[in-house]
Amino acid sequence: MIEAGEKVKMEVNLAVEFQDQDLNGYNTVAEIPGSDPTLKDEIVMLGGHMDSWHAGTGATDNGAGVAVAMEGVRIIQALGLKPRRTIRVALWSGEEEGLLGSQAYVKAHFGAFENPKPGYEKFGGYLNIDSGTGRVRGAGVFGPPEAANIIRKLLEPFKEDGVVGAVASRMRNLGGSDNTSFNQAGLPGIGMGQDPIEYQSNTWHTNLDTYERILEDDVKKDAVEVAWCVYQLAMRDDLLPRFAKADMPAPPPAPTPEPSPSPTPGRPAGRRSVRPE
Ligand SMILES: [Zn+2]
User: Fold this and answer.
1) Torsion region of 127: left, alpha or beta (phi above 0 gives left; psi -120 to 50 gives alpha)
2) Which of 103-112, 114-123, 131-140, 257-266 is least confident?
3) What separation in Å is there between the alpha carbon of 178 and the centre of ligand 1?
4) Cα–ligand 1 centroid distance for 134 (angstroms)
5) Residues 141-171: pLDDT tens digits?
6) Which of 48, 60, 174, 267 is deepest in the core (most CB within 10 A)?
7) Top-confidence residue, 37 or 24
8) Is the distance from CB of 133 to CB of 219 less than 8 angstroms?
9) How far is the CA of 223 from the centre of ligand 1 (A)?
10) Is residue 13 in a domain?
11) Which domain holds residue 168?
């Protein structure tokens, strides 16, 4: 309107306040304890991220993922199932600022291939949902082909419902979502691939990312599939296979510090360009 010579008047009502009492972000974590005395120290995880962008309420990014993860563990509880390994749900914070919550968690609990903590060897995989409201169609699995083969087999009961399979990944770079915090450490991060619906085009980080965009039937099915997957990972005799020592891909180089404050606060330059889904 300004370009057209229009005199523009704008009225803004901001009902916000600035707070500096507590600058931490908080992950929300809960678990179903394992029932097998020999396996309960082993952890299988699932989750999404709780934080969002300011323009909308964040229904598809990532209320949907949070709801699917919570519903997944609710289903397991409601059926009275007793997983052998511990199933832990994590709703991350600080994802949009650079996967901060999941990175801190992985460092604190598991360490990394090059610098493992005691929990490292007892970790059985992390399923991440963060690609909008669409149906789960498959999974990207960090690890050798045998790990992806196992997830593909687990997803087979949903084949007739359009779940295609799983592919293996060797990428340890931090990328589109919290599963890559696990990949970076050399742990089996599993990113669920979903139907795009109107995610990248409409709702992703926009003021359209609100409740009515959620496709209820799709997220219900996602919750069933994720519950099934995580339960099976908690029940099978062995943990997901990992890269042999000699075969582990090299970690990505440490990021070079930016010379001046990032031009887009809260969004590391180029991070989204490697978004896999
Ligand atoms: Zn997200």
Assistant:
1) beta
2) 257-266
3) 9
4) 13
5) 999 999 999 999 999 999 999 999 999 999 9
6) 60
7) 37
8) yes
9) 17
10) no
11) 28-249
- Cα–Cα distance for residue pair 237/273, rounded to 1 Å: 38
Alpha-carbon span 261 to 99, nearest angstrom: 18
Q: What is the pTM of this model?
A: 0.87
Q: Within 13 Å and on the Cβ side, how many CA atoms surround 206? A: 10
Judged by phi (left if over 0) then psi (alpha if -120 to 50, else beta), residue 75 lies in alpha
236 CB-contact burial (10 Å; exposed 0-12 / middle 13-18 / buried 19+) = middle
Q: What is the CATH number of the domain that holds 197?
A: 3.40.630.10
DSSP letter string over 173-235? S--SSTHHHHHHTTS-EEEEEE--TTIIIIITTSTT-SGGG--HHHHHHHHHHHHHHHHHHHH
Distance (Å) from CA 62 to ligand 1 centroid: 5
pLDDT at 258 over 90: no
Task: Assess if residue 275 is contained within a domain.
Answer: no
Strands (E), 60-161: 86-92, 111-112, 115-116, 123-128, 136-142
Residue holding tokens 């995880």?
Answer: 45
The alpha carbon of 129 and the centre of ligand 1 are apart by a number of angstroms equal to 8
Is residue 156 situated within a structural domain? yes
The number of domains in the chain is 1
